[in-house]
Specification:
Layout lengths: L2 E6 L4 E6 L1 H7 L2 H12 L13 E4 L13 E6 L6 E6 L3 H8 L3 E5 L6 E6 L2 E6 L8 H11 L8 E4 L2 H4 L7 E3 L3 E3 L4 H7 L2 E7 L9 H17 L4 H5 L6 H6 L21 H7 L1 E5 L9 E11 L3 E9 L1 H7 L8 H14 L3 H16 L5 H4 L9 H13 L3 H6 L3 H8 L7 E2 L2 E2 L7 H9 L10 H7 L7 H21 L11 H10 L6 H21 L25 H28 L5
Helix pairs in contact: 2-20, 2-22, 11-13, 12-15, 18-19, 18-23, 20-22, 20-23, 22-23
């Protein structure tokens, strides 16, 4: 049975609904959540109001198959006003399953700060005024000790002070080092006076055809643990991208002024591994081990009083706090990341904001009166730390504005032409060419992980442009990811979870599917997402590329606004077919109305 737990923080009421029929139609995860969100999220809804819902969901593969280790969050983004979708690993997916739920829906607002405790069927709101104001790191330690006697292995979600301040770039931290990072879920938690969620249970999976299951499981595990498909992630993780991207002029540097960072080797995955790597860990039930954790030794009292802290890192963090700020020392990147982690900001967004502020300072758009005497310069980690401290303290209006995102700041202070965002969401760390930028703009969750445009750019480097073919490849990749994000598997396992393997696994779990039906379901889910986005005001016609990105050299050379617009139009035409299928699906399935 696929069940949804509904929790109203205002009334303390809970409900449990059976959604098995819905899962049979839309698989689970992002597919089911997109439908549920479409029913109730509107353009008029204030994402920070008590009526706004947070949906957390998993799919049928979670807890059954290796690397099906993610949980999907869907909400209305306070940063963009559009669909907010974010994925996190850790223990959460297994904890949800063990508690007996595939979806948790949270609405309302608690009168005072609370954390939500879910332990099997037992659901409680626990007052936690003493945790308000504490860092995301300390809250995890406190709650893990306080809830030590729970059933099974618990998962802990929580926000830092940034979420309490309702920053639209605040994230939700999951377990030791995973995040619902993008699009401001942390602000929704803060708006509901929800400091944390602790989930646990002791229910376990049941298999009818154990022989077929074991054979399939073994095949999956062997490929994930030992094949070339996942070697990169086992070795250096995504930080392996730093040097190769810099060599092909695709590593954003100094607020996307260029794609080559002269100090890339000093903040590369290789350098971190040789000098700072302490351990590699995995999300629960994943054999890949992609999470890389560094140790940083700091003097906290003279003459010889040191402390050692652990900080996780990957390509996106190295780009946003490293090359894009021209920070060339790995230990300085780690120090800044540690502060960001404690506050609970999305590291990508805050890095892009700092880069914009630096360029704005250099161009005289902002001055020392805004920064309270702090001179901003690329490469100056001490000044960046002071800026982060001033933001966290709300030192003045300018610093309070900085954690509202680069679109907000550039509208208010100027410098829109070099504010690097797509539909108000700060750009990820790839400037490979037009498909990367189009993917950021059109993607259903505005992420480089929507349709892998950056990867398609690299396939076509040095070749003549084939716009129709390239956009079609992005579209088809997005459709495939509608399935994997509904299962919910990690995208690092995409080489293993082919559609034929997905079909095999779903049949073992009792789903009536074949490849043709899977392809149709992927298009229906895709259509549902764009129906929801357009309901919130999204329009392909309104998408633009930041002006600065038409004036810099990318991995595929210079990009024109006209080329960007043409690709967006082609993608929009392809999506229109899926919206039609989604509309037909809704009309034919009265139980969904």
């Amino acid at each position: 049975m696929y069940r949804m737990l509904e929790v109203n923080l205002s009334t303390c009421e809970t409900k449990v609904k059976d959604l098995s029929d819905l899962f049979s139609k839309l698989i689970g995860g992002t597919g089911v959540l997109s439908y549920l969100a479409l029913r109730e999220i509107t353009k008029e809804l204030d994402p920070l109001s008590p009526q706004s819902s947070i949906f957390l969901g998993i799919g049928p593969f979670n807890s059954y198959f290796p690397s099906a280790s993610k949980t999907v969050a869907i909400f209305k983004s306070p940063l963009t006003g559009d669909l907010g979708e974010s994925h996190a690993g850790g223990r959460l997916s297994m904890a949800l399953f063990a508690a007996g739920f595939h979806i948790v829906k949270i609405t309302g607002k608690a009168e005072k700060p609370v954390y939500l405790s879910i332990d099997n069927e037992q659901v409680n709101l626990v007052p936690c005024q003493s945790l308000w104001g504490r860092s995301a790191l300390s809250v995890e330690r406190i709650l893990r000790e306080k809830e030590d006697n729970r059933k099974g292995k618990k998962s802990i979600l929580r926000i830092g002070p940034a979420g309490e301040r309702l920053s639209p770039i605040a994230c939700v931290t999951v377990d030791s080092s995973r995040h619902f990072g993008r699009l401001g879920l942390g602000a929704l938690f803060g708006s509901k006076n929800l400091k944390a969620v602790v989930i646990s249970g002791n229910r376990y999976s049941r298999i009818l055809d154990k022989k077929s299951y074991q054979a399939f499981y073994n095949d999956l595990f062997k490929d994930l643990a030992y094949s070339e498909n996942t070697y990169k992630y086992r070795d250096l993780g995504t930080s392996a991208n730093v040097i190769p991207l810099s060599k092909i002029h695709s590593l954003p540097t100094r607020n996307f002024s260029q794609g080559f960072f002269e100090s890339a080797e000093r903040i590369s995955g290789e350098f971190f591994a040789e000098n700072f790597l302490a351990q590699q860990i995995s999300c629960s039930h994943c054999p890949i081990g992609c999470i890389h954790v560094a140790t940083l030794r700091e003097l906290f009292a003279d003459p010889h009083m040191y402390k050692t802290i652990k900080v996780s890192y990957d390509h996106e963090l190295i780009y946003s706090i490293g090359s894009n700020l021209s920070i060339s020392k790995a230990e300085e990147v780690l120090k800044l990341l540690q502060f960001i982690e404690r506050q609970g900001w999305d590291a990508i967004s805050i890095g892009v904001v700092l880069a914009w502020a630096t360029e704005a300072f250099q161009k005289g758009i902002i001055d020392l009166s805004h920064t309270d005497g702090v001179a901003l310069g690329f490469g100056d980690s001490l000044s960046y730390m002071k800026v982060l401290e001033n933001i966290s303290a709300g030192r003045n209006e300018f610093y309070r504005d900085l954690e509202k995102g680069v679109h907000y700041c550039s509208k208010k202070y100027g410098g829109e032409e070099f504010a690097i965002h797509f539909n108000k969401n700060e750009a990820p760390g790839y400037m490979t060419g037009p498909n990367a930028f189009v993917g950021y703009a059109v993607g259903v969750r505005h992420s480089h992980l929507d349709c892998a445009g950056y990867s398609i750019d690299q396939k076509f480097m040095g070749r003549q442009q084939e716009i129709e073919k390239e956009v079609k490849m992005m579209y088809e990749e997005s459709l495939y990811r509608m399935i994997t994000n509904s299962l919910v598997t990690c995208l690092f396992a995409r080489g293993t979870y082919t559609l034929s393997n997905v079909e095999r696994g779903l049949k073992i779990l009792g789903f009536d599917v074949d490849l043709q039906r899977l392809n149709k379901i992927s298009r229906v889910i895709h259509g549902l997402k764009y129906m929801l986005k357009e309901k919130l005001g999204f329009s392909f016609e309104n998408l633009t590329i930041p002006v600065k990105l038409t004036k810099v050299y990318t991995g595929r050379g210079m990009i024109s606004a006209e080329d960007f617009t043409e690709r967006v139009k082609i993608y929009g035409r392809l999506v229109s077919q899926d919206k039609h299928l989604a509309s037909e699906f809704l009309n034919q399935n009265s139980f969904l109305k």
